[in-house]
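Recall the central idea of this unit: under ordinary conditions, the amino acid sequence of a chain determines the structure it adopts. In this exercise we apply that idea directly, starting from the sequence alone.
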Amino acid sequence: MTPRLLRTAVATALALGALGLTQPARATSSDGVHTVRVPDGDPHDRSLAPRTTEPFSLIGVTWDDPDEALDGTVQVRTRSRESGAWSTWRPLEADSRRPESGPDRDRAGVRGSTQPLWTGPSDGVQVRVAGSRLPEGLRVELVDPEAGSDAVHTGAVDPDVVPPDGVPPAAGPQSAERPAMTSRSAWGADESLVKDPPTYTGDTKAMFVHHTAGTNDYTCSQSASIVRGVFLYHVQSNGWNDIGYHFLVDKCGTVFEGRAGGVDKPVLGAHTYGFNTATSSVSVLGDYSTAATNAAVRASVAKVAAWKLGLYGIDPTGTTVLTSGADNGKYKLGQKVTFHRISGHRDGYPTECPGQHLYDDLPEIRTLAANAGKSAESAAEPPGLLDEDENEDAAEGVLGR
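Accordingly, the structure predicted from this sequence is:
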């Protein structure tokens, strides 16, 4: 290269760098997730300069030690692929923890992480992390849920599908109808990424309600992509075997099948650190610290909880005692805790999840779930017939006249 061409190349690179358009150094990608390492430096303040990236629609930050908490704040700015405009600074919730037991804890490559943020189609990023204690190996996870995926066709899980051999579904009386839900194949789960079979626990005793945090600015036609993005983030970025939640619900009330293994089985999840055993989970797409829920969200969460708990004959308005499987910052290992059968994530772990608005809706959701069970019982009862107790009461009334 001539000196003149070399000077031109250097000047061009410097100009692009000043504009934040440099390609990220030490970046890697795998199966829809493009990672960029955050440079080491100040132990209390680290950043990634603005830069052009591979396409992505969901972002998070991870670090090497999955048992180390990030005691600080993580903020990101992203650039829209459509308009070229940069977003405002947005926080990432740093409250995601790996399960206290099971294969998701013991797998090689499991990482600590923030919650992911849905950004919509983007191609640029800037990151800043600050706090009293920052973990090592910080990296930015840029998830493109459309990379290498076939077209997604929404559909419902067939209630009559025979479950996989090995673990039978719950044998209790069904007290609520099974809600329609979009199957894993319909939202586009790449089953080749799920390396290990699901782990099963005992009976499902409680349902924990979450939100995915991030943004509420999505269309419901994007919901399958968001679920697919969360799946890729949990598997490729966190290093888990599968998506952590058992069910997900979007703001239009659509229910999505989450973790594989059978929606009617007690599958061990990765959702509430310390209380994953014998519990199920449903996460609402969006941030309900800032936005209120709507009737469709509340009804769908209630239907999922009523059906899942109803498989075990559980009253969704009741309580249960669970034993903590870890020192999680809120409860000690082995501590017995009384929970509502439908509880919020924050009831079991020190977090703002599922957001104050959704948390405040839980009493109504419990009532809706109880009514869903009553409606199913009424629909199953033949018209004009009384149950055994009512027949006895009626007979006594006749004989008493």
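DSSP finds nine helices and 15 strands in the chain.
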